[in-house]
Design brief:
Layout lengths: L3 E8 L11 H14 L11 E5 L3 H4 L4 H8 L7 E4 L5 H14 L5 E9 L5 H9 L14 H16 L3 H14 L14 H6 L2 E3 L2 E2 L8 E9 L1 H6 L6 E10 L35 H14 L4 H4 L2 E3 L5 H10 L8 H6 L16 H5 L3 H17 L2 H4 L13 E8 L4 E8 L4
Parallel strand pairs: 2-3, 2-4, 9-10
Antiparallel strand pairs: 1-7, 1-8, 4-7, 5-6, 8-11, 10-11
Length: about 425
């Protein structure tokens, strides 16, 4: 397995609807942006691609990936589609990395998109709900906001997590997005704003939940030799890859010992029922594998920032614990103490995350990678029109985290700066 570098990335603005562009043109815009950022990169250097989009229902088009491949001018080179619910973009990122790490390709493009505005919100939620067990969960009202409401109710019951702590996640992420022109819904919020928003599934309000979106993102991977040949400035090394899975039906998930990270001991969790409804075993496994590969012993000390899958304010808190930023049960206190804010011990979602940027599913994990790439290059200001407020100072190592279903597919990837 050889070292793999991310050499460039591009994204479109995420929008509630983008009627002026179909999915091909959205991807082309993000692809062209990534190509322009490495002027010596030419089309003949690209060996192939990986495409990510969650649902054929939203495009009303089967095999949309090959249509994008053609539109980008990448035929007859190899390409494939990756799909894994909300983790589709994260799986695509890792699929592109694997294509280069394996030696199959020297340069690989990973692109993702979704056009969720093509259907009404209720219909979109139904499509997303089809990613639950349609024989068991779906017939009894299995919409995902209901699942996450149930999970956070259990988290609140077991650990004392509060709705005010959840609101602080929304405040942080929407506030960060005020400095991100790519974000769909930047806003300056208060706890009262979040709690007084329309209730969706108790205790989750509209401002606790991300929105369906239209958007696209592109990432370009290369070997060290090709990165040098194309003149890539400050390419970012992908040092850790991890993924995890779990049973789709939470009732099927057996209890056992916590999967420990290097900085934890069994005595930390001697009384914890695990995984429980409050946590994501697949996320812990993805984290454990990525940390091991990247040599991370303690994420608070070894990571500069994290872009994680905050489809719900509650899931950001749950993921603090799964990724070992704090012990299980302490996620609410982690946000309450400001530890995940810009300037905190570990900034989380400086981009605004899914809550504020939006969630065009196939593009989301790649969007996280692009923002992480710019952070590690120290080029946030360049790409965000001169505003570098969300630039993490002296960023050396970052993590991206992508999540599907109720934790059925989860990816964690570690990226490191090569700047001297």
């Amino acid at each position: 397995m050889r070292p793999v570098y991310m050499v460039s990335g591009g994204i479109t603005k995420f929008r509630k609807a983008n009627p002026n562009q179909d999915f091909r043109l959205m991807v082309k815009d993000s692809f062209d942006y990534a190509m322009r950022d490495v002027p010596n990169l030419t089309m003949d250097m690209i060996d192939g691609s990986v495409a990510s989009y969650f649902s054929d229902h939203f495009t009303r088009q089967l095999m949309a990936g090959i249509m994008v491949q053609d539109y980008l001018g990448l035929v007859p080179r190899p390409g494939k589609r990756i799909e894994g619910g909300g983790a589709t973009g994260g799986l695509c990122f890792q699929g592109g990395w694997e294509s280069v790490a394996s030696g199959r390709m020297d340069v690989c493009v990973a692109y993702g998109f979704e056009t969720m505005s093509h259907v009404n919100t209720w219909k979109g939620n139904e499509f997303i709900a089809l990613a639950s067990d349609v024989n068991f969960d779906f017939p009894v009202g299995g919409f995902y906001s209901g699942y996450y409401a149930m999970m956070v109710q259990r988290h609140m019951h077991e650990f004392g997590t509060t709705v005010e702590q959840m609101a602080k996640v929304s405040i942080k992420n929407h506030g960060n997005a005020l400095h991100n022109p790519y974000a769909q819904s930047p806003a300056k919020l208060t706890v009262e704003d979040v709690r007084n928003a329309t209730m969706v599934a108790n205790p989750l309000t509209l401002l606790d939940i991300c929105t369906m979106s239209d958007g696209a993102a592109t990432v370009i991977f290369a070997t060290e030799e090709m990165a040098t040949k194309m003149g890539a400035v400050d390419p970012v090394l992908v040092t850790g890859i991890g993924s995890g899975t779990d049973a789709m039906r939470m009732a099927d998930r057996p209890h056992g010992k916590v999967l420990l990270l290097d900085h934890e001991t069994e005595s930390d969790y001697k009384d914890l029922k695990y995984p429980g409804v409050h946590s994501f075993r697949g996320g812990r496994n993805a984290t454990r594998l990525a940390y091991k590969m990247a040599g991370i012993r303690n994420p608070i000390e070894d990571l500069s920032f994290v872009e994680l899958h905050d489809a719900y304010t509650s899931s950001e808190i749950q993921t603090y614990e799964d990724m070992g930023f704090c012990k299980y049960g302490e996620g609410g206190k982690f946000i309450e103490d400001g530890k995940s804010e810009l300037g905190g011990v570990l900034p989380v979602n400086p981009s605004g995350g899914l809550l504020a940027c939006g969630h065009p599913v196939g593009a989301t994990g790649l969007m996280q990678a692009v923002f992480a790439f710019w952070q590690l290059q120290n080029t946030i200001g360049k790409h965000l029109g001169g505003d570098d407020f969300i630039q993490v100072k002296n960023a050396k190592r970052g993590a991206i985290h992508s999540h599907a279903g109720t934790g059925t597919y989860i990816t964690v990837s570690i990226m490191e700066s090569t700047r001297s």
